[in-house]
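Troubleshooting log. The previous structure file for this entry was overwritten by mistake, so regenerating from the original sequence record. Sequence copied from the archived sheet and checked twice against the printout by T.R.
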Amino acid sequence: MQMKVGGRDFDLTKQDVEARMMGEDPELIQKHMVEVNGQMFPPKQVLGHVTGWERATFTTMEAQRVLTRIGFVCTEARAGRIRKAGQFIMDSVRDSVQETMSDHGDEQFRRGFSAAAGIALRQIQKRLDDLREQMKGKGLSQAEQAFYAHLDELKSEIEADCDRFWRGSRVDWRPPKPVAKTAIRRTDETGS
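Regenerated output below.
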């Protein structure tokens, strides 16, 4: 398909892009992404690689326009990345307790599922808590604010996926809340 970017004419098809991107490793996705050959890439990486142009000579929006015009779907990374991360965690949770279910029955499965979900959710919650503490002090950079929003959304999606998994079973999958540690004073201690 004949196109023009930054005053440069070129001819490119979806098949050309797929062939030229074969074997390429995706770079870190910041905000926008496009799926090529089953992998997610930054749009500028794709257009720069297939044309040989320096990436500073065109914008992400131009790269998206070209790729969309030849048949690719360009999206914002946030939703896709969160969805994939949530699905990965859910798959890991299910896989880790599947054998227990077949060997030891439904109660063991529920406990295993709850424990595995608790591990994932506690890790996310710890990071969210750390970021909240940082908000009280020096605050968060834009990247940290975006990361906080991603984590918060990921946690909600994992909980919603677990709720859907157990819907109608009357099983409470949620891990037990940790017991707060309190100072216990022995009666034989003397106060000064």
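The chain has a mean pLDDT of 78. Archived copy saved in two places this time.
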